[in-house]
Automatic annotation (TrEMBL):
Transmembrane segments: 47-65, 72-89, 95-121, 133-151, 171-196, 216-236, 248-266, 273-290, 296-316
Tree of life domain: Bacteria
Keywords, sorted A to Z: Cell inner membrane, Cell membrane, Membrane, Transmembrane, Transmembrane helix, Transport
Protein name in UniProt: Autoinducer 2 import system permease protein LsrD
One Gene Ontology cellular component: plasma membrane
Species: Promicromonospora thailandica
Subcellular location, principal: membrane
GO molecular function per UniProt: transmembrane transporter activity
InterPro entries: ABC_transp_permease
PANTHER family for the chain: ABC TRANSPORTER PERMEASE PROTEIN YPHD-RELATED-RELATED (PTHR32196), AUTOINDUCER 2 IMPORT SYSTEM PERMEASE PROTEIN LSRD (PTHR32196:SF71)
Membrane topology: Multi-pass membrane protein
Entry keyword Cell wall biogenesis/degradation: no
């Protein structure tokens, strides 16, 4: 009720998501003015290619975090699906069949996580840390230190091709379509409202008729399937299936989701903020790489952004609570005013 007492333009613009969009615009302008080569058309091409797997995985991750849970096994599912796709192709299976089998395997991995969290009642943090090690171990164990290469040029070129003469890669269309699907799912369906209700209070959601366990299972299955799809894209983009593909990707995904305004405690989040968070991390990474900054330093920057995105809302919430307490009349003064 308090939030809807404000005018509509304040509810639309004065939000965490729009703050992330504003920071993204500022970062782009500053990078274009200070980093040589950043404002060229190649920047858009490689930016989209770089953020594509991050954005894919961040879409279902947004819904999971909005329930108050988390999935840290996504990067290992990307690696396992990459290995599966490569081995199946190497064994003579068609690429479309190998893709379908890889996505199915990702869904099974997500179902294992979801069953342990939703039906066994285990904490998602512990479950997905364990499955992170399990799935990554399976990926490395299946392929070892070797790599599967030699994929058809029509597939590898298609993963990096541009739309006509524009700087936008073809994969942009798929990203936009999936982002629209998840945005509608979260913001315009009863399922999405149930997701946010679970994040606010799982007990209240259960008593109001929401099947909490089934909802969580579906979300983890979606996370596994989309992560597997990202693994296939990762393989085709670099032309190599390896067990260590996408190592550390979960850091970028979680950072983008939290930077996009999704509450780590659940109950709040919007897809446009997450898309802006993914783009912001991509812009920072591209600018720093053009300046010759190493990957380790880039990870430090992303990790710092992740910590700030978690701490800042708590500090802001504490300030608001103290301000309300200081401005509200005390009991004695209220009684005096009524008398």
């Amino acid at each position: 009720m308090r939030s809807h007492a404000r005018p509509w333009w304040q509810r639309a613009l004065l939000t965490r998501e729009m703050l992330t969009v504003a920071i993204l615009v500022v970062a782009w302008v500053v990078a274009s003015a200070t980093v040589r080569g950043f404002d060229g058309p190649l920047t858009i091409t490689y930016l989209v290619l770089d953020i594509a797997p991050v954005l894919l995985v961040a879409l279902p991750m947004t819904l999971i975090v909005a329930t108050g849970e988390i999935d840290l096994s996504v990067a290992s599912v990307v690696g396992l699906s990459s290995v599966t796709f490569g081995l199946l192709y190497q064994a003579g299976l068609g690429l479309w069949a190998a893709l379908a089998a890889s996505v199915l395997l990702g869904a099974v991995c997500g179902a294992v996580n979801g069953a342990l969290v939703a039906y066994a009642g285990l904490p998602s943090l512990a479950v997905t840390i364990g499955s992170l090690a399990l799935y990554r171990g399976l990926a490395v164990g299946l392929l070892g230190t070797t790599a599967v290469t030699g994929f058809p040029d029509s597939w590898t070129d298609g993963a990096t091709a541009n739309l006509s003469e524009s700087p936008w890669p073809v994969v942009t269309l798929g990203l936009l379509a999936l982002a629209a699907v998840f945005a509608v799912l979260l913001h315009a369906t009863p399922f999405g409202r149930n997701v946010l209700d679970i994040g606010r209070s799982s007990e209240a959601a259960r008593f109001s008729g929401v099947d909490v366990r089934r909802t969580l299972l579906i979300l983890f299955v979606l996370s596994g399937a989309v992560s597997a799809l990202a693994g296939v894209y990762y393989t085709l983009r670099y032309g190599s299936a390896r067990g260590d593909n996408a190592t550390g990707l979960e850091l970028q995904v979680v950072a983008a989701v939290l930077l996009g305004g999704v509450s780590i405690f659940g109950g709040r989040g919007a897809l446009h903020g997450v898309v802006a968070g993914v783009l912001l991390i991509g812009v920072l990474g591209s600018a720093l790489r053009l300046e010759g900054v190493t990957v380790n330093v880039i990870n430090i920057v992303i990790g710092t952004a992740l910590v700030v995105s978690v701490v800042a809302p708590r500090i802001a919430g504490g300030v608001r609570v103290r301000r309300r307490a200081s401005t509200s009349p005390r009991d004695g003064s209220a009684v005096a005013q009524r008398s």
